[in-house]
Amino acid sequence: QVKASESSKKREMKIREELEGLFVATRKQHEDLARSKEKATAVLDSSMRRLDILDARAKNMSLRMDEAVAELEVIQSSINILKQERTKAHKNEDRHTNHVKEGCTYSHSKLPNCSSIALGDDPYTFRQLTLLDVQAATCKFSESFKLRPRRHGCIYKGKIMNRSVMIHRLHSDSIKSSMQFQRKVYILNKVRHPHLVTLVGVCPEALCLAYEYPKNGSLHDHLFGELNSAPPLPWKIRARIVAEISSALLFLHSCKPQMMVHGGLNLENILLDSDSHCKIADFGTLTAEDSKDHPALDSGLLAHKSDINSFSTVILQLLTGKQPGSPGLASEVRRALSCGKLSSILDPTAGEWPMEAARRLAEFGLECSGDRPELTPDTVRELEQLHLIRGRPVPSFFLCPILKEIMDDPQVAVDGVTYEGRAIREWIEDGRAVADLKLKHLGLTPNHALRFAIQDWLSQPQW
C-alpha cells in the first residue's frame, strides 16, 4: 500500500510538472500574441492616418482640377471673344488709309489670307496689326514674354500667324508724333539686308514693330549662356559672322538720303538663324537726324563711330570669349598681339584658330576700337575671305618652344635649340635662359635656313 501511495504521488507530480510547463508555454504564446496585436494595431493606426492624408490630398487635387477646368473654360471663352473682335477689326481695315507726308504713303491692299500694307511702289509688304493682335501674341505684354529692355522700348517674343516674331514696343515718349512713327515704318520697310531682321508687321495703335525672330539664339547665348543652352561656335562661323556684321553695318551707314545707325550693337541683339548666319536686331530706331536728340550721340559722325566701336567689342569677344564689359579687353588683345602671344588669349571653345585669320581679326578689332573712320567695301570683302582659310597643320619645328607660335626670327641658342629671337632675348634679360635652360653662354645664331623655309610655307596658298 505504501508503494502504491508513492507511485500515485510520483504520477501526480509528473502531471503537475507537465501542466506547469504547458501553462508557461501557453502564457508565453499569449504574451507573443498580445505583442503582435499591439504591433498590428500600431501599423493599422499608421495606415489609417496615411489613408486620411491621401484622401485629403485627393480631395484637394480634385478641387484644383475643377478650378483649372473652370479657368480653362474662361480662357477659351476669352480666346473666342478675341477672335470675334479681331475678325470685326480686320473687316474695318479696308476703310482706313494712312498717309505719310514728304512723299511717303501707306496704301492698304487686300492680299490672299492676309491684310497688309504696301508702301507706294515698294514690292515689300508687311502685316498691319491691331492692338488685339499684339496683345494676343504677347499675352498682354506679359513679363514672361519679355526678351530684353531697350533704350526706346521693350522687346517681346510672340507668335503671329503661326510665325515666331520679336515685337518691339516703343516708349510713347520716344515718338513725338504719329507722323514720326509712320516715317520710321516707311524707312524700316525699305531697309532689307540678308543680315538684318525683316520687318513683318506694324501696330500703330500700340507703337509696336514686329520682326522675324531667328530661333538659334543670340551670340551671347552661344558664348556665355548657361551650360548646354547653346553649342559653342567654331572659329570658321565666328569669322564669317564678323564679315556678315560688317556687311550689314556698311549697308546701314550707306543708306541714302540719310545714314542709319544702330546705336546699340552687342552680342544680345546679334541673332543666328538655323544655319548660324547672323541677323542683327534692334536697329532702325535712330537715324543720323534722330541722333541730334541724344547727348551721347550728338552728331551723325559720333553715332557712326559708336557703331564701329561696338563692333570692335563684338569682334574681340568672339576672338577671346571674354564676358561683356571685361575691363581692358582691347589693351589685353593689343598687348598679346605685340608680344606674339595672341594664341594664349583665344577662346579654346572655338577650336584651333589659324593664326593668320586670328591675327587679322585682332588687328581689325583694334582698328575699330580707335579712330577708324568707316567701313569700306574692300574691308568687307577682305573679312569675307578669312573664314575660308584652311587650318593647315604647322610643322612642329616651325614653332618656338617658348611661345608655341610660328617663328618670325628663328635664332639658335647654345643648347642647339631654335627659339623666336624676341622670346629668347627676353629670357636672357630676365635671367631665365641661364636658370631654366642652363645655357653656358648667351650667344645666338640666326637660323636662316629655317626662316626661309617658314616664309616659303607661309607664302603657299591657303584658300
Automatic annotation (TrEMBL):
Keywords: Coiled coil, Transferase, Ubl conjugation pathway. PROSITE patterns: PROTEIN_KINASE_DOM, U_BOX. Residues 51-85 form a coiled coil. GO terms for molecular function: ATP binding; protein kinase activity; ubiquitin protein ligase activity. GO terms for biological process: protein ubiquitination. Its EC number is 2.3.2.27. Pathway: Protein modification; protein ubiquitination. Gene3D superfamilies: Phosphorylase Kinase, domain 1 (3.30.200.20), Transferase(Phosphotransferase) domain 1 (1.10.510.10), Zinc/RING finger domain, C3HC4 (zinc finger) (3.30.40.10). It catalyses: S-ubiquitinyl-[E2 ubiquitin-conjugating enzyme]-L-cysteine + [acceptor protein]-L-lysine = [E2 ubiquitin-conjugating enzyme]-L-cysteine + N(6)-ubiquitinyl-[acceptor protein]-L-lysine. Residues 141-390 form the Protein kinase domain. SUPFAM superfamilies: Protein kinase-like (PK-like), RING/U-box. Pfam families: PK_Tyr_Ser-Thr, U-box. Residues 393-463 form the U-box domain. This is RING-type E3 ubiquitin transferase.
